[in-house]
Design a protein that fits this description.
The protein is of the alpha/beta class and about 525 residues long. It contains 20 helices and 20 strands. Strand 11, helix 15 and strand 12 form a beta-alpha-beta unit. It is globular. The structure holds glutamine. The site of glutamine has 10 residues, from strand 16. The site of glutamine (GLN) has 10 residues, from strand 16.
Protein backbone atom coordinates (compact mmCIF):
# COMPACT_ATOMS: atom_id res chain seq x y z
CA UNK A 1 0.00 0.00 0.00
CA UNK A 2 1.10 3.59 -0.42
CA UNK A 3 3.39 5.20 2.18
CA UNK A 4 4.46 1.81 3.50
CA UNK A 5 8.09 2.50 2.63
CA UNK A 6 8.64 1.22 -0.91
CA UNK A 7 10.67 4.32 -1.79
CA UNK A 8 12.98 3.96 1.18
CA UNK A 9 13.24 0.21 0.47
CA UNK A 10 14.19 0.81 -3.18
CA UNK A 11 16.66 3.55 -2.21
CA UNK A 12 18.19 1.33 0.49
CA UNK A 13 18.57 -1.60 -1.90
CA UNK A 14 20.31 0.79 -4.29
CA UNK A 15 22.54 1.91 -1.45
CA UNK A 16 23.63 -1.55 -0.28
CA UNK A 17 24.41 -2.72 -3.81
CA UNK A 18 26.24 0.53 -4.58
CA UNK A 19 28.25 0.14 -1.36
CA UNK A 20 29.66 -3.05 -2.90
CA UNK A 21 30.93 -1.18 -5.94
CA UNK A 22 28.11 -2.10 -8.32
CA UNK A 23 26.72 0.71 -10.42
CA UNK A 24 23.06 1.08 -9.62
CA UNK A 25 20.17 3.00 -11.17
CA UNK A 26 16.89 3.66 -9.37
CA UNK A 27 13.76 4.06 -11.49
CA UNK A 28 10.32 5.10 -10.22
CA UNK A 29 7.15 4.06 -12.05
CA UNK A 30 3.99 5.85 -10.99
CA UNK A 31 0.54 4.61 -11.89
CA UNK A 32 -1.17 7.95 -12.41
CA UNK A 33 -2.15 9.27 -15.85
CA UNK A 34 -0.44 12.62 -15.20
CA UNK A 35 2.63 13.07 -17.40
CA UNK A 36 4.59 14.12 -14.33
CA UNK A 37 4.05 15.21 -10.73
CA UNK A 38 4.24 18.92 -11.62
CA UNK A 39 0.50 19.42 -11.81
CA UNK A 40 -0.38 17.44 -8.67
CA UNK A 41 -1.23 19.31 -5.47
CA UNK A 42 1.53 18.66 -2.90
CA UNK A 43 -1.00 17.85 -0.19
CA UNK A 44 -2.40 15.20 -2.53
CA UNK A 45 0.67 13.28 -3.57
CA UNK A 46 3.57 14.74 -1.62
CA UNK A 47 6.43 16.96 -2.67
CA UNK A 48 7.31 17.50 -6.30
CA UNK A 49 11.01 16.69 -6.55
CA UNK A 50 12.92 18.66 -9.19
CA UNK A 51 15.94 17.17 -10.94
CA UNK A 52 18.98 18.95 -12.40
CA UNK A 53 17.41 18.52 -15.84
CA UNK A 54 14.16 20.08 -14.62
CA UNK A 55 12.09 16.90 -14.32
CA UNK A 56 9.17 17.43 -11.91
CA UNK A 57 9.10 14.02 -10.36
CA UNK A 58 7.73 11.92 -7.56
CA UNK A 59 9.29 12.55 -4.16
CA UNK A 60 10.93 9.10 -4.26
CA UNK A 61 13.57 10.41 -6.66
CA UNK A 62 14.62 12.58 -3.73
CA UNK A 63 15.02 9.48 -1.59
CA UNK A 64 17.14 7.86 -4.29
CA UNK A 65 19.38 10.94 -4.55
CA UNK A 66 19.78 11.24 -0.78
CA UNK A 67 20.64 7.56 -0.35
CA UNK A 68 22.89 6.94 -3.35
CA UNK A 69 24.17 10.51 -3.86
CA UNK A 70 23.52 10.11 -7.60
CA UNK A 71 21.66 12.65 -9.71
CA UNK A 72 18.36 11.44 -11.15
CA UNK A 73 17.05 12.50 -14.55
CA UNK A 74 13.78 12.32 -16.45
CA UNK A 75 14.84 8.85 -17.65
CA UNK A 76 14.51 7.63 -14.06
CA UNK A 77 10.81 8.43 -13.75
CA UNK A 78 7.88 6.98 -15.71
CA UNK A 79 4.13 7.36 -15.38
CA UNK A 80 1.16 5.70 -17.03
CA UNK A 81 0.61 9.05 -18.77
CA UNK A 82 4.07 9.04 -20.34
CA UNK A 83 3.67 5.44 -21.49
CA UNK A 84 0.32 6.07 -23.20
CA UNK A 85 1.49 9.40 -24.64
CA UNK A 86 4.41 7.68 -26.38
CA UNK A 87 2.33 4.74 -27.65
CA UNK A 88 -0.32 7.12 -29.03
CA UNK A 89 2.35 9.34 -30.60
CA UNK A 90 3.76 6.31 -32.39
CA UNK A 91 0.33 5.20 -33.52
CA UNK A 92 -0.34 8.67 -35.01
CA UNK A 93 2.98 8.36 -36.88
CA UNK A 94 1.94 5.04 -38.38
CA UNK A 95 4.78 3.36 -36.56
CA UNK A 96 2.66 0.28 -35.79
CA UNK A 97 2.48 -0.49 -39.52
CA UNK A 98 -1.30 -0.73 -39.73
CA UNK A 99 -1.69 -3.14 -36.79
CA UNK A 100 -4.27 -2.38 -34.14
CA UNK A 101 -2.60 -1.11 -31.00
CA UNK A 102 -3.62 -2.97 -27.82
CA UNK A 103 -3.17 -2.41 -24.12
CA UNK A 104 -1.54 -5.88 -24.11
CA UNK A 105 1.20 -6.19 -25.23
CA UNK A 106 1.87 -2.65 -26.54
CA UNK A 107 1.67 -0.86 -23.21
CA UNK A 108 3.93 -3.35 -21.33
CA UNK A 109 6.36 -3.26 -24.27
CA UNK A 110 6.71 0.51 -23.91
CA UNK A 111 7.21 0.07 -20.14
CA UNK A 112 10.02 -2.41 -20.87
CA UNK A 113 11.58 0.01 -23.37
CA UNK A 114 11.66 2.68 -20.66
CA UNK A 115 13.18 0.34 -18.06
CA UNK A 116 15.88 -0.68 -20.56
CA UNK A 117 16.46 2.96 -21.51
CA UNK A 118 17.01 3.84 -17.85
CA UNK A 119 19.56 1.03 -17.59
CA UNK A 120 21.37 2.17 -20.75
CA UNK A 121 21.45 5.87 -19.83
CA UNK A 122 22.78 5.10 -16.35
CA UNK A 123 25.06 2.29 -17.58
CA UNK A 124 23.93 0.43 -14.48
CA UNK A 125 24.92 -3.11 -13.50
CA UNK A 126 21.70 -3.35 -11.51
CA UNK A 127 18.51 -1.35 -12.04
CA UNK A 128 16.09 -1.10 -9.14
CA UNK A 129 12.61 -0.39 -10.48
CA UNK A 130 10.04 0.76 -7.97
CA UNK A 131 6.38 0.36 -8.85
CA UNK A 132 4.06 2.73 -7.00
CA UNK A 133 0.62 1.51 -6.02
CA UNK A 134 -0.70 -1.75 -4.69
CA UNK A 135 -0.67 -5.30 -6.02
CA UNK A 136 -4.15 -6.17 -7.25
CA UNK A 137 -5.09 -2.67 -8.41
CA UNK A 138 -6.11 -2.41 -12.02
CA UNK A 139 -3.70 0.35 -13.07
CA UNK A 140 -0.70 -1.73 -11.96
CA UNK A 141 -1.58 -4.63 -14.33
CA UNK A 142 0.36 -3.43 -17.41
CA UNK A 143 3.42 -2.84 -15.23
CA UNK A 144 3.22 -6.31 -13.69
CA UNK A 145 2.74 -7.76 -17.15
CA UNK A 146 5.92 -5.92 -18.23
CA UNK A 147 7.74 -7.54 -15.30
CA UNK A 148 6.39 -10.96 -16.26
CA UNK A 149 7.46 -10.51 -19.88
CA UNK A 150 10.96 -9.41 -18.85
CA UNK A 151 11.31 -12.23 -16.38
CA UNK A 152 10.14 -14.94 -18.75
CA UNK A 153 12.73 -13.72 -21.30
CA UNK A 154 15.57 -13.47 -18.77
CA UNK A 155 14.59 -15.53 -15.74
CA UNK A 156 17.97 -15.19 -14.04
CA UNK A 157 18.31 -11.45 -14.58
CA UNK A 158 14.99 -10.18 -13.28
CA UNK A 159 13.55 -10.65 -9.86
CA UNK A 160 10.59 -9.40 -7.91
CA UNK A 161 10.63 -7.91 -4.42
CA UNK A 162 7.28 -7.56 -2.70
CA UNK A 163 7.15 -4.85 -0.03
CA UNK A 164 4.25 -5.76 2.21
CA UNK A 165 2.69 -4.47 5.39
CA UNK A 166 2.25 -6.70 8.42
CA UNK A 167 -0.32 -5.18 10.77
CA UNK A 168 -0.41 -5.87 14.50
CA UNK A 169 -4.03 -5.26 15.62
CA UNK A 170 -3.78 -3.60 19.03
CA UNK A 171 -6.40 -5.86 20.61
CA UNK A 172 -4.47 -8.98 19.57
CA UNK A 173 -0.93 -7.70 19.99
CA UNK A 174 0.06 -10.28 17.39
CA UNK A 175 1.54 -9.67 13.95
CA UNK A 176 -0.63 -10.83 11.06
CA UNK A 177 0.55 -12.13 7.69
CA UNK A 178 -2.84 -12.58 5.98
CA UNK A 179 -2.70 -9.32 3.91
CA UNK A 180 0.76 -10.38 2.66
CA UNK A 181 -0.53 -13.84 1.77
CA UNK A 182 -3.37 -12.22 -0.19
CA UNK A 183 -0.91 -9.96 -2.01
CA UNK A 184 1.20 -12.98 -2.98
CA UNK A 185 -1.89 -14.74 -4.33
CA UNK A 186 -2.71 -11.61 -6.37
CA UNK A 187 0.82 -11.64 -7.76
CA UNK A 188 0.41 -15.33 -8.65
CA UNK A 189 -2.68 -14.42 -10.67
CA UNK A 190 -0.43 -12.12 -12.72
CA UNK A 191 2.00 -14.99 -13.36
CA UNK A 192 4.58 -13.72 -10.87
CA UNK A 193 6.00 -15.08 -7.65
CA UNK A 194 8.05 -12.80 -5.40
CA UNK A 195 11.74 -13.66 -5.08
CA UNK A 196 11.94 -11.64 -1.88
CA UNK A 197 9.38 -10.32 0.58
CA UNK A 198 10.17 -7.23 2.65
CA UNK A 199 8.01 -7.21 5.78
CA UNK A 200 7.23 -3.62 6.79
CA UNK A 201 5.87 -3.46 10.28
CA UNK A 202 6.11 -1.62 13.58
CA UNK A 203 8.24 -4.56 14.75
CA UNK A 204 10.51 -7.30 13.38
CA UNK A 205 8.87 -10.23 11.65
CA UNK A 206 8.90 -13.31 13.88
CA UNK A 207 10.47 -16.56 12.61
CA UNK A 208 6.98 -18.11 12.54
CA UNK A 209 5.63 -15.33 10.34
CA UNK A 210 8.64 -15.58 8.05
CA UNK A 211 8.03 -19.32 7.66
CA UNK A 212 4.34 -18.79 6.91
CA UNK A 213 5.07 -16.17 4.25
CA UNK A 214 7.93 -18.29 2.90
CA UNK A 215 5.51 -21.22 2.47
CA UNK A 216 3.03 -19.21 0.38
CA UNK A 217 5.82 -18.06 -1.96
CA UNK A 218 7.92 -21.25 -1.81
CA UNK A 219 10.84 -19.17 -0.54
CA UNK A 220 13.47 -19.95 2.10
CA UNK A 221 13.28 -17.73 5.21
CA UNK A 222 16.49 -15.85 4.20
CA UNK A 223 14.42 -14.25 1.46
CA UNK A 224 11.77 -12.99 3.87
CA UNK A 225 13.27 -9.78 5.22
CA UNK A 226 12.26 -7.91 8.34
CA UNK A 227 11.84 -4.14 8.00
CA UNK A 228 10.65 -2.76 11.35
CA UNK A 229 10.06 0.95 12.03
CA UNK A 230 13.32 2.80 12.78
CA UNK A 231 14.10 6.25 14.21
CA UNK A 232 15.78 7.39 11.03
CA UNK A 233 15.05 6.20 7.49
CA UNK A 234 18.82 6.12 6.94
CA UNK A 235 19.03 3.14 9.31
CA UNK A 236 17.10 1.02 6.80
CA UNK A 237 20.10 -0.03 4.64
CA UNK A 238 22.01 -0.96 7.80
CA UNK A 239 19.05 -3.03 9.01
CA UNK A 240 18.83 -4.77 5.65
CA UNK A 241 22.49 -5.71 5.95
CA UNK A 242 21.76 -7.26 9.35
CA UNK A 243 19.27 -9.49 7.52
CA UNK A 244 21.95 -10.24 4.92
CA UNK A 245 19.85 -8.80 2.12
CA UNK A 246 22.78 -7.50 0.02
CA UNK A 247 24.58 -10.84 -0.10
CA UNK A 248 21.37 -12.78 -0.79
CA UNK A 249 20.35 -10.37 -3.57
CA UNK A 250 23.69 -10.80 -5.33
CA UNK A 251 23.55 -14.56 -4.96
CA UNK A 252 20.09 -14.56 -6.53
CA UNK A 253 21.39 -12.46 -9.42
CA UNK A 254 24.41 -14.71 -9.82
CA UNK A 255 26.79 -11.80 -9.18
CA UNK A 256 29.91 -12.12 -7.02
CA UNK A 257 29.77 -10.73 -3.48
CA UNK A 258 32.18 -7.83 -2.96
CA UNK A 259 33.33 -6.14 0.21
CA UNK A 260 31.03 -3.35 1.24
CA UNK A 261 31.72 0.16 2.39
CA UNK A 262 29.00 1.62 4.59
CA UNK A 263 31.41 2.85 7.27
CA UNK A 264 30.85 6.59 7.02
CA UNK A 265 27.12 6.10 6.66
CA UNK A 266 26.82 3.77 9.65
CA UNK A 267 29.05 6.04 11.77
CA UNK A 268 26.80 9.04 11.09
CA UNK A 269 23.70 7.19 12.22
CA UNK A 270 25.42 5.84 15.32
CA UNK A 271 26.23 9.43 16.14
CA UNK A 272 22.66 10.60 15.41
CA UNK A 273 21.21 7.97 17.75
CA UNK A 274 23.17 9.51 20.61
CA UNK A 275 22.32 13.17 19.99
CA UNK A 276 20.21 14.65 22.78
CA UNK A 277 20.32 18.41 22.23
CA UNK A 278 17.46 19.91 20.29
CA UNK A 279 16.89 22.76 17.90
CA UNK A 280 13.33 24.01 17.28
CA UNK A 281 12.41 25.02 13.75
CA UNK A 282 9.00 26.32 12.68
CA UNK A 283 7.75 25.75 9.15
CA UNK A 284 5.21 28.39 8.16
CA UNK A 285 3.35 26.75 5.29
CA UNK A 286 -0.08 25.75 4.12
CA UNK A 287 -0.03 22.28 2.61
CA UNK A 288 -1.10 20.55 5.80
CA UNK A 289 -3.97 18.09 5.54
CA UNK A 290 -4.86 14.51 6.36
CA UNK A 291 -1.61 13.29 4.83
CA UNK A 292 1.51 13.81 6.88
CA UNK A 293 3.41 17.05 6.35
CA UNK A 294 6.37 14.74 5.98
CA UNK A 295 5.33 13.77 2.46
CA UNK A 296 4.66 17.35 1.40
CA UNK A 297 7.88 18.86 2.71
CA UNK A 298 10.17 15.81 2.74
CA UNK A 299 13.26 17.43 1.16
CA UNK A 300 12.96 20.45 3.48
CA UNK A 301 12.67 18.19 6.53
CA UNK A 302 15.59 16.06 5.44
CA UNK A 303 17.75 19.12 4.73
CA UNK A 304 17.03 20.40 8.25
CA UNK A 305 17.93 16.96 9.62
CA UNK A 306 21.22 16.68 7.69
CA UNK A 307 22.38 20.12 8.81
CA UNK A 308 21.31 19.67 12.44
CA UNK A 309 22.96 16.25 12.73
CA UNK A 310 26.24 17.70 11.49
CA UNK A 311 25.91 20.25 14.32
CA UNK A 312 25.04 17.53 16.87
CA UNK A 313 21.41 18.56 17.25
CA UNK A 314 18.12 16.86 16.64
CA UNK A 315 15.51 19.08 15.03
CA UNK A 316 12.03 19.45 16.49
CA UNK A 317 9.91 20.69 13.62
CA UNK A 318 6.80 22.68 14.43
CA UNK A 319 4.12 23.02 11.71
CA UNK A 320 2.61 26.48 11.58
CA UNK A 321 -0.38 27.09 9.35
CA UNK A 322 0.10 30.61 8.00
CA UNK A 323 -3.63 31.26 7.61
CA UNK A 324 -4.11 31.52 11.37
CA UNK A 325 -1.91 34.65 11.52
CA UNK A 326 -4.26 36.35 9.06
CA UNK A 327 -7.12 35.83 11.53
CA UNK A 328 -5.17 36.76 14.66
CA UNK A 329 -1.81 38.54 14.51
CA UNK A 330 -1.23 37.97 18.20
CA UNK A 331 -0.57 34.32 17.44
CA UNK A 332 2.71 35.37 15.83
CA UNK A 333 4.23 35.58 19.30
CA UNK A 334 4.51 31.75 19.18
CA UNK A 335 7.50 32.33 16.86
CA UNK A 336 9.43 33.72 19.85
CA UNK A 337 9.75 30.21 21.26
CA UNK A 338 11.40 28.91 18.09
CA UNK A 339 15.08 28.97 17.15
CA UNK A 340 14.30 29.66 13.51
CA UNK A 341 11.58 29.89 10.89
CA UNK A 342 11.38 28.52 7.33
CA UNK A 343 8.85 29.63 4.72
CA UNK A 344 8.99 26.89 2.07
CA UNK A 345 7.77 26.82 -1.53
CA UNK A 346 4.15 27.24 -2.48
CA UNK A 347 1.65 28.46 -5.04
CA UNK A 348 -1.37 30.74 -5.05
CA UNK A 349 -2.65 33.42 -2.71
CA UNK A 350 -4.07 31.26 0.08
CA UNK A 351 -2.05 31.78 3.23
CA UNK A 352 0.39 34.24 1.62
CA UNK A 353 -0.66 37.19 3.82
CA UNK A 354 0.04 35.12 6.94
CA UNK A 355 3.50 34.25 5.61
CA UNK A 356 4.19 37.94 4.91
CA UNK A 357 3.27 38.75 8.52
CA UNK A 358 5.55 35.96 9.80
CA UNK A 359 8.46 37.24 7.68
CA UNK A 360 8.03 40.73 9.10
CA UNK A 361 7.80 39.38 12.65
CA UNK A 362 10.98 37.31 12.24
CA UNK A 363 12.80 40.35 10.85
CA UNK A 364 11.81 42.62 13.72
CA UNK A 365 12.42 40.00 16.41
CA UNK A 366 15.73 38.87 14.85
CA UNK A 367 14.53 35.27 14.58
CA UNK A 368 16.57 33.41 11.91
CA UNK A 369 14.46 33.25 8.75
CA UNK A 370 15.08 31.11 5.70
CA UNK A 371 12.81 31.49 2.66
CA UNK A 372 12.75 28.82 -0.03
CA UNK A 373 11.48 30.02 -3.42
CA UNK A 374 8.05 31.39 -2.42
CA UNK A 375 9.70 32.16 0.94
CA UNK A 376 12.15 34.51 -0.82
CA UNK A 377 9.31 36.26 -2.65
CA UNK A 378 7.44 36.61 0.67
CA UNK A 379 10.55 38.10 2.29
CA UNK A 380 10.81 40.63 -0.56
CA UNK A 381 7.11 41.61 -0.39
CA UNK A 382 7.30 41.97 3.38
CA UNK A 383 10.42 44.15 3.11
CA UNK A 384 8.85 46.33 0.41
CA UNK A 385 5.73 46.88 2.51
CA UNK A 386 7.30 47.42 5.90
CA UNK A 387 10.70 48.99 5.21
CA UNK A 388 10.40 50.57 1.77
CA UNK A 389 6.91 51.77 2.69
CA UNK A 390 5.05 50.40 -0.35
CA UNK A 391 2.00 49.42 1.69
CA UNK A 392 0.27 47.44 -1.05
CA UNK A 393 3.35 45.73 -2.50
CA UNK A 394 2.55 42.22 -3.65
CA UNK A 395 3.23 39.47 -6.16
CA UNK A 396 1.16 39.37 -9.35
CA UNK A 397 0.54 35.74 -8.44
CA UNK A 398 -1.41 36.90 -5.36
CA UNK A 399 -2.96 40.04 -6.84
CA UNK A 400 -2.74 40.81 -10.56
CA UNK A 401 -3.92 44.38 -10.00
CA UNK A 402 -1.42 45.33 -7.30
CA UNK A 403 -0.05 48.89 -7.57
CA UNK A 404 3.43 47.68 -6.60
CA UNK A 405 4.21 44.30 -8.18
CA UNK A 406 7.59 43.77 -6.49
CA UNK A 407 7.27 40.13 -7.53
CA UNK A 408 6.15 39.89 -11.13
CA UNK A 409 5.36 37.26 -13.73
CA UNK A 410 8.53 36.26 -15.61
CA UNK A 411 8.42 37.55 -19.18
CA UNK A 412 8.41 34.07 -20.77
CA UNK A 413 5.57 32.96 -18.48
CA UNK A 414 2.95 35.52 -19.50
CA UNK A 415 1.69 33.66 -22.56
CA UNK A 416 1.99 30.27 -20.91
CA UNK A 417 -0.30 31.37 -18.10
CA UNK A 418 -2.73 33.08 -20.50
CA UNK A 419 -2.98 29.92 -22.62
CA UNK A 420 -3.25 27.67 -19.53
CA UNK A 421 -0.10 25.89 -20.69
CA UNK A 422 0.86 24.67 -17.22
CA UNK A 423 2.61 21.30 -17.72
CA UNK A 424 6.40 21.41 -17.26
CA UNK A 425 6.53 25.07 -18.32
CA UNK A 426 7.94 26.80 -15.21
CA UNK A 427 11.58 27.86 -14.97
CA UNK A 428 12.77 24.39 -14.06
CA UNK A 429 15.99 22.67 -13.09
CA UNK A 430 19.58 23.74 -12.52
CA UNK A 431 20.76 27.25 -13.37
CA UNK A 432 24.00 28.96 -12.34
CA UNK A 433 24.17 32.02 -10.11
CA UNK A 434 26.93 34.39 -9.06
CA UNK A 435 27.26 35.46 -5.43
CA UNK A 436 28.21 38.80 -3.97
CA UNK A 437 31.61 38.83 -2.34
CA UNK A 438 31.41 39.06 1.45
CA UNK A 439 27.65 38.34 1.61
CA UNK A 440 26.09 35.81 3.98
CA UNK A 441 25.41 33.60 0.95
CA UNK A 442 29.03 33.81 -0.20
CA UNK A 443 30.38 33.05 3.27
CA UNK A 444 28.01 30.06 3.59
CA UNK A 445 28.95 28.52 0.23
CA UNK A 446 32.60 29.53 0.41
CA UNK A 447 32.61 30.23 -3.35
CA UNK A 448 31.37 32.75 -5.89
CA UNK A 449 29.69 30.53 -8.45
CA UNK A 450 26.90 28.12 -7.61
CA UNK A 451 24.29 26.07 -9.42
CA UNK A 452 20.89 25.30 -7.91
CA UNK A 453 17.54 23.84 -8.94
CA UNK A 454 14.52 26.01 -9.71
CA UNK A 455 10.76 25.74 -10.04
CA UNK A 456 8.92 29.04 -10.38
CA UNK A 457 6.97 31.39 -12.68
CA UNK A 458 7.48 34.67 -10.82
CA UNK A 459 10.59 36.71 -10.02
CA UNK A 460 11.75 39.87 -8.27
CA UNK A 461 10.57 42.71 -10.50
CA UNK A 462 13.70 44.43 -11.95
CA UNK A 463 11.94 47.80 -11.60
CA UNK A 464 12.11 47.60 -7.80
CA UNK A 465 15.63 46.25 -7.31
CA UNK A 466 17.38 49.62 -6.89
CA UNK A 467 14.80 50.90 -4.38
CA UNK A 468 14.85 47.67 -2.38
CA UNK A 469 18.64 47.75 -2.25
CA UNK A 470 18.61 51.38 -1.18
CA UNK A 471 16.29 50.34 1.65
CA UNK A 472 18.85 47.75 2.80
CA UNK A 473 17.87 44.49 1.12
CA UNK A 474 20.93 42.82 -0.40
CA UNK A 475 20.56 40.76 -3.57
CA UNK A 476 23.52 38.55 -2.92
CA UNK A 477 22.92 36.02 -5.70
CA UNK A 478 22.07 36.82 -9.31
CA UNK A 479 21.87 34.95 -12.59
CA UNK A 480 25.16 35.35 -14.54
CA UNK A 481 23.47 37.94 -16.80
CA UNK A 482 22.60 39.91 -13.65
CA UNK A 483 18.91 40.02 -14.56
CA UNK A 484 17.34 37.46 -12.22
CA UNK A 485 17.59 37.85 -8.44
CA UNK A 486 18.48 34.45 -6.96
CA UNK A 487 19.15 35.32 -3.30
CA UNK A 488 17.92 38.15 -1.08
CA UNK A 489 19.39 38.73 2.37
CA UNK A 490 19.91 41.23 5.15
CA UNK A 491 23.39 42.09 6.30
CA UNK A 492 24.62 40.18 9.36
CA UNK A 493 24.99 43.58 11.00
CA UNK A 494 21.22 43.99 11.18
CA UNK A 495 19.96 40.41 11.47
CA UNK A 496 21.61 37.10 12.47
CA UNK A 497 20.14 35.23 9.46
CA UNK A 498 17.51 36.64 7.13
CA UNK A 499 17.83 35.08 3.71
CA UNK A 500 15.68 33.76 0.91
CA UNK A 501 16.52 31.86 -2.25
CA UNK A 502 14.58 31.91 -5.52
CA UNK A 503 15.83 28.32 -5.99
CA UNK A 504 15.24 25.19 -3.92
CA UNK A 505 18.41 24.33 -1.99
CA UNK A 506 16.55 21.47 -0.26
CA UNK A 507 16.91 19.27 -3.35
CA UNK A 508 20.69 19.09 -3.05
CA UNK A 509 21.24 18.31 0.62
CA UNK A 510 22.64 14.85 1.45
CA UNK A 511 23.02 13.11 4.82
CA UNK A 512 26.82 13.17 4.60
CA UNK A 513 27.02 16.62 2.96
CA UNK A 514 24.39 19.01 4.31
CA UNK A 515 23.53 22.00 2.11
CA UNK A 516 25.72 25.04 2.98
CA UNK A 517 22.73 27.40 3.36
CA UNK A 518 20.86 24.98 5.64
CA UNK A 519 24.09 24.55 7.62
CA UNK A 520 24.47 28.34 8.01
CA UNK A 521 20.79 28.75 8.93
CA UNK A 522 20.95 25.97 11.55
CA UNK A 523 24.11 27.48 13.01
CA UNK A 524 22.27 30.78 13.46
CA UNK A 525 19.29 28.94 15.00
CA UNK A 526 21.48 27.11 17.51
CA UNK A 527 23.11 30.39 18.45
CA UNK A 528 19.70 31.94 19.09
CA UNK A 529 18.66 28.88 21.12
CA UNK A 530 21.70 29.30 23.38
CA UNK A 531 20.71 32.90 24.12
N1 LIG B 1 4.62 30.41 -6.69
C1 LIG B 1 5.93 30.96 -6.82
C2 LIG B 1 6.37 31.02 -8.28
O1 LIG B 1 5.85 30.31 -9.10
C3 LIG B 1 6.93 30.17 -5.99
C4 LIG B 1 7.14 28.80 -6.51
C5 LIG B 1 7.75 27.85 -5.49
O2 LIG B 1 7.75 28.13 -4.29
N2 LIG B 1 8.25 26.71 -5.95
O3 LIG B 1 7.24 31.78 -8.61
Amino acid sequence: MSSVGKGITAASIGKILQSRGYSVANLKADMYVNIDAGTIRPAEHGEVFVGEDGVEADQDLGNYERFTDQTCTRDDYITTGQIYQEVIRRERNLEYGGEDVEVYPDIPKEIIRRIELCQKKNKSDITVVEYGGTVGEYQLHPFLEAARMMKSKNPLDVFIILVSYLPTPSLLGEQKSKPTQRAVIDLHSMGLNPDFVICRSDRSATPDIKRTIGNVCSLPVEKIISAPDVYSIYDVPVNFEKENLGATLLKTLGLPERSKDLKEWTALFHKVAKIEKKVRIGIVGKYFNFKSCRDTYISVIESINHASWALSRKADIVWLDSEKYEKDKKLLSELDKLDGVIVPGGFGSRGAEGMILAADYARKKKIPYFGLCLGMQILTISYARNVLGLKDANSTEMNEETAHPVIATMADQVDKIKNKNYGATMRLGAYPAVLKNGSLAFVSYGKLKISERHRHRYEVNPKYIADLEKAGLVFSGRSPSGILMEIAELSKKVHPFYLGTQFHPEFKSRPLSPHPLFAAFLKACIKKGKK
